[in-house]
Amino acid sequence: MSLNSFGHLFRVATWGESHGPALGATVDGCPPGVAVDEAMIQHWLDRRKPGQNRYTTQRQEADQVEILSGVFEGKTTGTPVQLMIRNTDQRSKDYSEIAEKFRPGHADITYWQKYGIRDYRGGGRSSARETAARVAAGGLARAALAALAPEVRITGYMVQMGPHRIDRDRFDMGEVERNSFWVPDAKAAEDWAGYLDGLRKSGNSVGAVIEVVASGVPAGLGAPIYGKLDTDLAAAMMSINAVKGVEIGEGMAAAELTGEANADEIFPGNDGKPVYSSNHAGGILGGISTGQDVVVRFAVKPTSSILKPRQTITKAGQATEIITKGRHDPCVGIRAVPVGEAMMACVILDHLLLHRGQIGDAGGRIG
Length: 367
Ligand SMILES: Cc1cc2nc3c(=O)[nH]c(=O)nc-3n(C[C@H](O)[C@H](O)[C@H](O)COP(=O)(O)O)c2cc1C
Known about the structure:
Elements: E1 5-6, E2 11-16, E3 22-28, H1 38-48, E4 65-69, E5 71-72, E6 75-76, E7 81-86, H2 108-115, H3 130-148, E8 153-161, E9 164-165, H4 186-201, E10 208-215, H5 229-238, E11 243-248, H6 259-262, E12 266-267, E13 275-276, E14 284-285, E15 288-289, E16 294-300, E17 310-313, E18 319-322, H7 333-358
Helix pairs in contact: 1-3, 1-7, 3-7, 5-7
Bound molecules: flavin mononucleotide (FMN).
Flavin mononucleotide binds near residues 328, 336 and 339.
């Protein structure tokens, strides 16, 4: 199974399976001298870890990160950083009943068709356990950003669960850390709790939309045509399990706008920094950051493992029925929030390093 890496200069390869002894990320290209330790990376992993409330899978994983290489006396050395997380709560027996059946909505059938291998223990490499490795790599990327571009802030939150959207008039970032859904709207958090409880108790699940914003990103990151910042962001988000749609700025809704409404007008600002009237572009023009907030949204599909009987086939091609027991997230969107943030951190850092390499301080000045 090839192609387990992403990134150009800050290059992340993830490895490991849901029910193997451990999983992790090997990060090649992290600059030297970045202050980082296990606690700093653990902070981000704790936000993704399962079993934290009744709306996430009850699999109990400490998700404790170990740094095996690339850090000496609290600083990166510039050599590969190996991040490892041991699996501690693998219960293969939960999956033994489905070893011969393909679970609808999962990668079982396509992995079988492609590789002729069926890792029925929670999906093996296709399991969202893999996203823990991304969050660990994202923690390292955040540490590097803190050193190289300390003004960059990356925040993710849910803006939609099933048909229920947040009310942007009630938007309050302070709420995000106070509820189980990472939602910036106290009323939505209350309403969604009842909605998701109902779905969970009936053995069903639902999809969600997550928004990730990077503020403080300097103008000039990204390159035209094949190196567009938005191309890499879209690929990074789309590579997360269960993601079925990605949009930047106005996204799909841009199709409904007129050119007049969509134009982010430009005004003179202080210190040669332009001021924009709006941010329909999501902080990216021609693949290059404008200096405004970089805004990405992605949609995740409803959790496929549900207690409702579904039709499927066996490896032998026989029709059968399946109920996917075991421990599952009723809405994967909740735990996808820290994963989206991690991918944003990796991509922004990667483009910062590319920019530093090719351009340095040689950009055009306004004023
Ligand atoms: C954080 C996170 C947690 C997930 N948890 C579950 C889960 O508990 N049960 C499930 O059926 N799918 C879960 N998924 C989704 C599956 O991993 C994913 O749908 C599956 O691997 C098939 O890949 P695809 O949906 O990208 O095609 C989760 C996804 C993410 C991002």
